[in-house]
Amino acid sequence: MSKKKADLSQFEQTLAELEQIVQQLEQGELSLDQSLAQFERGITLARHSQQLLQTAEQKVQILMQQQQQESLLPFEPEQGN
Fold first, then answer.
1. What is the per-residue pLDDT across 20-65, written as a single tens digit (0 to 9) for each?
2. What angle do CA 73, 58, 1 make, to 5 degrees?
3. Which helix (H) or strand (E) holds 58?
4. Cβ(41)–Cβ(25) under 8 Å?
């Protein structure tokens, strides 16, 4: 699996787990200790997701800057003899 696919898969898994935690907390059926543990896990997942998004944004910015630095040369067809 390529690194890009691994990063995307990791982000999707993290997001899915975070959504599951939110649902559990919203249901209100967990004990206080369980709720606190899930909340702590959710914060960790949210921070990790934010880091993944920041990394992706930096990559996009680098690619956009590289694209702007590249200049196109005018096409000059070969002249026949």
1. 999 999 999 999 999 999 999 999 999 999 998 999 899 888 888 8
2. 95
3. helix 32-69
4. no
